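Case 802 in the screening queue. Each case pairs one protein sequence with one candidate compound; here the compound is 2-acetamido-2-deoxy-beta-D-glucopyranose. For every case the pipeline is the same: read the inputs, emit a complex structure as tokens, and attach any notable structural observations.

Predict complex for case 802.
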Amino acid sequence: MADSPLPRRRPLALDAVAALLVLGVLVGGLPSVAANLVSDINIKIAQEQGPNTCVIEEVPGTEHKIWTECKYWADRDVCGRKAVVRYDCCEGFSRVEGQHGCTGVLPLQDVVKTAGAAGAARFAALLESSGLADQLRAEGAAFTLFAPSDQAMDELTSSQLAALRGARADNPVLNHHVVANKQLSRAWGADQLLPSRLRGSSLRVNKYSSKIETVNCATIVRKDQEASNGVVHIVDTLLDPERSTYSDLSTAVVQDGRFRQLSRLMQRSELFNAMRSHNQAYTLLAPNDEAFQKMPAARLQRLENDDQAREALLRHLVLPHPVCLGAVVGPHRFPTKGPERLAFDCDARGVSVEGMRFGAGATADMTLAADGFLYMLDEVPLPNRVKTLLQLTQDERLYSFGEVVRAAGLESLLDGPGDYTLFAPSEAAMASLPFGQMNRLRADQGAARSFVMLHVSRGRILTETITDNQVAQTLESDSLRLQVYRKSYGVEDALVERADVQGLNGVLHVITKALRAANATLEETLRQDANYTTFLRAMDRLREDSANSLEFRGSRTAYTFLVPSDEAFQRLGVTRLKQLLANTTLLARTLKNHVVDDMVGTESFRENLQYAVPSRYGGLNVTRADGRLKVNDATVLTCDRTNRQGVVHYINKVLMPPDHHHHHHHVTVVAPSVPPYVTQRTQVHWEERVEERDESDQDDDEEYVDPDLGRVDPDLGPLPEVYRGRERAGLGQGLGQGLQEHRYREDRVGPRHYQHQQQHNVVDQRHQRNQYHQQSQHHQRHNAARVQHSTHHYLQSGSNNY
Ligand SMILES: *[C@@H]1O[C@H](CO)[C@@H](O)[C@H](O)[C@H]1NC(C)=O
Ligand SMILES: *[C@@H]1O[C@H](CO)[C@@H](O)[C@H](O)[C@H]1NC(C)=O
Ligand SMILES: *[C@@H]1O[C@H](CO)[C@@H](O)[C@H](O)[C@H]1NC(C)=O
Ligand SMILES: *[C@@H]1O[C@H](CO)[C@@H](O)[C@H](O)[C@H]1NC(C)=O
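Case 802 output:
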């Protein structure tokens, strides 16, 4: 009992596993075989059936009943209902009294008699009475007969019945079911045309990974019934040649009469010409004229005039495979010619796409052509590119932001004409707004309006056009600084978590934080947050020394300031603090080591990576753990205080410049190797400093706070009542020679050529930063993508083409 002769788990339909895997590779992802595993119990039951027994899958209470040639089959749901597995003799076998399984072999009969015996007695009778049966026998050739089951014959429409009444041997409907030569199903590809006996017409056979096989989208319920002069396949509907009178689908759209709007859109599209010339079979979802009439007139107008939107819509309506609805047995997302997939599903009422039903009842309104299938729809499935920003925020489930938009009365802005960029805070971002703010936004239309306008910029800003620190003007003329990070983008201190969702009237980026107008200056910010004035006053002091003073030009810049708290400065000890403040050369170097020529928010750092961030003077190492940043050995106390000059992170230690050595013991200094981030400019300083020794420090590692010192800085005197720095223009002038060439630009989002000059600097710097990050991210994403992919291909037609 220990060793079962069979593997513990077997995939659905053993004989098809290899084909399924090959198919999986060909379509670029593995089908989810795991979902189709045959349980141990089913394997046991199958084995008890004895030789030559095959599975019949049926769903009680429905017409779903297919005879398989398989012994092992997984339990599954078919359109939301449990399918039941029964066993019967495989094709050609019968039970012998007293023996286990099916050990009797049935005699071969001709195709017509075989059809009659396999459940298509009425169609067989028609073939006999018309004389076509005799004609086939007389020809002495092999045939393939697709015979509608008796049940299918019960469901004929009156016009189909009329076409068969008094049929003779040359009856087109009957001849349409006959194909020359013996065509066993295993020889068919995923999609194949078989010329029928009806002159000039052919039958399309398809195989799907849901194990359903179809001919002209009629499901083959019983296949490969061998006959003396060929083979019979039983189908669940009549193959009506009247349904396939068009040579190609685009002609069908033009000539049908119900698709005038679609036909107008298609006439101006390259897509269909290209499809025709590639001779590729496809599926077209065709919204009828009523469907388009349900759209607002202005939007339809825009669709006609906006080439990209029109093309996006048409691509969204084309599935690059012939898809038969009968093969859809559960939820599945089919790829389209556009970037998005279409979600199909089915239930007892039939198949739907994106929640839209195909026709009334279970039968879809379908047209067949030599190049594929067309299904009529009463609604238009819209790709993102044809939805408005308001619809996109709903699709992305940004409910709270949507609520603020309503409170602001700005639905018409996001739902109307124009072209905007919307940076919409995610649901999580809105949930972490300061306490009470959401209620205020709900209640105060003016506040809500400002909030929304701050998140909207004119024109489409796509991430592919963003350069680091580029500025976007909001609708209320606030400026947003856009950031380029490795593998991600930022806006102010927020990160873009879903980028470039293009809609009809603009592009949506979902961001991780709600934005604030950063209108305060750096000094206003520092003054407002008490306990950070030593840094300010140190800067002020430098201003008096023109050779060393710091300068930030422009009313809005994009720097990062790591500002040590007053306590951190005091912890240096009286002597060192005095020295620091007295020596403007040292002070300038120290302050420059706290300034980064780039605006980097906390969120741009991922956990468990070490980022090399060049400061104005040297290099800093930034890490993030449990959401907290560390800069070298300093911990960030409060982060992401955005202001006109950039962003401030408060730290608990002074970051002494890398070449500032303290020695408790008098040791000869050996020149350290130059760290990789030291640039040409700083390298000079580095070499200068190597010779020097600072012997005056006694206490740099101790947490030294002089209790008597209080809030008085040794060299600067008591805090001034009002900060003396100049207003607006930023902090003093001249942050040293090298700092003159700051990279900040205040150009608006505009022509590309403005942006190019700056790009190289940015790339160089960013290159050092985040390099670990890039690799691990890449791998993670890659894997995630593969997982995603594999779950999507469960219903993939056939075995070779796709
Ligand atoms: C910020 O300043 C700009 C002009 O510099 C102004 O248009 C905008 O209204 C200000 N925003 C806030 C919130 O004060
Ligand atoms: C400033 O520092 C003092 C003493 O360290 C502390 O008591 C006070 O809470 C701090 N204020 C702020 C706003 O952090
Ligand atoms: C000031 O600091 C610089 C750099 O550390 C040093 O080279 C210089 O000697 C110091 N000047 C005085 C007067 O201590
Ligand atoms: C930053 O990290 C690098 C590599 O780990 C190290 O060599 C360098 O000394 C660190 N720099 C600082 C300022 O801690």
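Case 802 observations:
- The CA atoms of residues 450 and 636 lie 31 Å apart.
- The mean pLDDT is 78.
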